[in-house]
Fold this protein.
Amino acid sequence: MNMQVGVLALQGAFAAHSECLTSIGVQSVEVRTPEQLSSVDALLMPGGESSTMSQLLESSGLFDPISTRIADGMPVFGTCAGMILLASEILDGRSDQRSFSAIDISVRRNAFGRQVDSFESTINSSVGDFHGVFIRAPRIERVGDGVEVLGSINNEPVLVRQGNVLAASFHPELSNDARLHEYFVSITANRKKV
């Protein structure tokens, strides 16, 4: 199946996600404009600094087109800051920070600690066990009824899905394990068949 997965490339760790997709034979497109967004079947939103990414989404003219595509069913996968941008509630965001409200979760930015508090942990998940890299990671403090918790550490959700939206507190692109990207691609492939 011919498929293009976009990687939001405004700020943050987008190159590692592109490499991960390439490693599993999926064509990735760095998305910086609405025109580039229109060519992709799915979108990956990387880690970075969520309030900066929110501002860049506005100034690039991408916020509204992405919001429309998600509402129309485009699969989207947000990691770390990407998860914050997809959440329905950001508990400690800037007053002007917008999110897509694409998944019914409440998140707290940097809740696992500052950069020096970064850590790695095994994540037990219904789609496999993963080595999770947590860097200034957000914490999911509320999960809505329609959200499926796919993975957790210490009984805390860190990998969640609601329909076409997948979100992770951690950085799967830094673990040399592409299975989570493969899972996201399978969501996209199933969507394309419909």
Notes: The two ends are 13 Å apart (CA to CA). The first helix runs from residue 14 to 23. DSSP finds six helices and twelve strands in the chain. The first strand starts at residue 4 and ends at 8.
